[in-house]
Amino acid sequence: MHILFCGSGWLDIVDHITSRLSPADKLRIWDRRRPLVEEVVAAPTDVILPSNATIDARVIAAAVEQGLRLVQQPAAGTDGIDVAAAAARGIPVCNAPGANQVAVAEAALLLLLLCARRWPAARSAFEQGVIGAPLGVELAGASLLVVGAGKTGAALAARATALGMHVRTATSATTRAELLVELDRADAVSLHCPLDETTRGMIDAEALAAMPPHAILVNVARGPVIDRDALQDALARGHLGGVGLDVYWQEPWDPADPLYAHPRVVTLPHIAGSTTAAFERIASVVVENVTRLKRGDALMHRIA
Questions:
Q1: Check: CATH 1.20.1250.20 for 101-267?
Q2: Is 280 part of the annotated catalytic residue set?
Q3: Is 270 assigned a catalytic role?
Q4: Which residues, in sequence order, are bridge partners of residue 146?
Q5: Domain boundaries, the chain
Q6: Cα–Cα distance measured from residue 272 to residue 151, given in angstroms and rounded to the nearest whole number
Q7: Which of 69, 222, 264, 281 is catalytic?
Q8: DSSP-based three-state secondary structure for 300
Q9: CB 124 within 8 Å of CB 264
Q10: Where would a tag sit more exposed on the chain, N or C end, judged by fewer CB atoms within 10 A?
Q11: Once rounded to an integer, what is the mean pLDDT over residues 101-129?
Q12: Residue 244: which residues within 8 A CB-CB, separation 6 or more?
């Protein structure tokens, strides 16, 4: 099998996958100095591992000419894949749901804790030799709204409950009016929903205004779930007690962007799902599906 990994970053996962593949299988990494469609046509491509790359109809068409048989996302999210275009050409699309649920839940909890203890200000105080500042808040007894009741959201809910937080959830069945009510009651909000046309910009000016001024907002879903301009305006007005981000509106992001230097914003470099255990589970799914593809067996976690 000829396998193409298209990710920008997360290269550690390539080692986990390669170590499990048959010696006859060949995995290459997209040379990002050229467009992805050119990479696809440069060599045979049986399997595409998209990671965070955009796999549109043009890429799929080019890959089909090179023998494409499977688009296997080494993660849960498939918003960057034109699933309809793949299905139209008979190419299965699979993902690896739940493989990184513990990792993402722990990262969301980390962001909640860092925001609660005002990490940017605490780091600044440390560098200046200031003792005992800033004043933080406790998560125990606070109300947490988990938006997205999938595997990572459920895993966070269990951990937050263990800390003594009062957890509620909002799902795709939650109406807009109900969401605004839930936001109004939340001391903290953590986003775990997929990105689609119903969730893009869901946390907009109205939603942010509904949240209490002291509330913490964490995003480990996708950057565009939050309306960036609305978030920037809210922070400029002194609204929100903290914002924790692991995902961004553009990736790679601009590290010089003043939004990320705001004293109430905590950032991680899109590492919520990046742990050794998570990558081992993802590699197991990827290699199992490659093996099943060779044998002509039914694929795991097929979404199209």
A1: no
A2: no
A3: yes
A4: 169, 190
A5: 2-99+275-295, 101-267
A6: 14
A7: 222
A8: coil
A9: no
A10: C
A11: 98
A12: 108, 111, 112, 114, 115, 216, 217, 218, 219, 265, 266, 267, 268
pTM higher than 0.85: yes
Which tokens is 125 given?
């105080």
Q: Is 251 a catalytic residue?
A: yes
Asked whether the domain spanning 101-267 has the same topology as the one spanning 2-99+275-295, the reply is yes
> What tokens were used for 93?
């699309």
Query: Span 2-99+275-295: which CATH code?
Result: 3.40.50.720
Structure tokens at 245: 């981000």
Catalytic residue (choose from 38, 214, 251, 302): 251
Assigned token pair, 229: 């301009």
What angle in degrees, to the nearest 10, is found between the helix axes of 101-116 and 151-162? 50
Average pLDDT, stretch 220-242?
98
Over the stretch 141-176, which tens digit does the pLDDT of each residue have?
Answer: 999 999 998 999 999 999 999 999 999 999 999 999
| 216-219 sheet: strands from edge to edge | 166-170, 143-147, 188-191, 216-219, 242-245, 265-267
